[in-house]
Amino acid sequence: MISVISPAKNMRNIKINNISPKTLGEHRYFTKETKEIIQILKSLSPYDIQSLMKVNEKIAFQSYAYFQDFNFVDEGVCGLLAYDGLAFKNIKAEDFSMEDFIFANDHVKILDAFYGIVNPLDEVLPYRLEMQYPIKIDDKNLYKFWNDKIYNKLYTDDNIIVNLASEEYAKAVRRFLKEDDIFIDIDFKVHKNGKLKTLATSAKMARGQMIRYIVKNKINNPEDLKDFTFDSYKFSHNLSTSRKFVFIKED
After folding, report:
1. What is the pTM of this model?
2. What is the pLDDT of residue 26?
């Protein structure tokens, strides 16, 4: 069982004693593709970045600096520690043991517009790129550039995939799914005023907490996820199917 999550827009530089990136430079899944992307990104001016990414001037100049400074020989941060967003704050990987990181490296993957797939122990250098940004690589948008490469890597060993990623990243895999592929969506909803709604902030926190639950309990069977609870979210047998696990929280 492999659980997939989205990256975060912001980066951080946290390092833990005795925990260092396992996969370096040329040993990444998609080094060739990342090199193609960074060459395009290095050619952008701060104002190009601001226009393409719809960000403010400060973020545009920070992103420009990331791209200009990017070099595979530089020392990076472990993938699970490199991103700074609600989901990653709730994973709390900074207190993971070496055993936790080794399990996570085999069972958790970060779907990524820049690296393709990031393993928890892969070395990550700071960047800013979302799959939906209108960047052209060989006249292709990022979805067409990556095509089925991310899907093929995930399903190399007929894996069961548990989807905790946003749809922006999940569809990089979903659109290539075959009938026999096991791809289980996890949905966190709030029962409010007689309607079921997904609250983005709460759902991101719950996704991070589920990754933590999977790693800390060494879960390798999707059925065991049904016991997961967080902030009053509980598994709904009535609303769930074999391909979609729904967790409901009463308002």
Report:
1. 0.91
2. 42
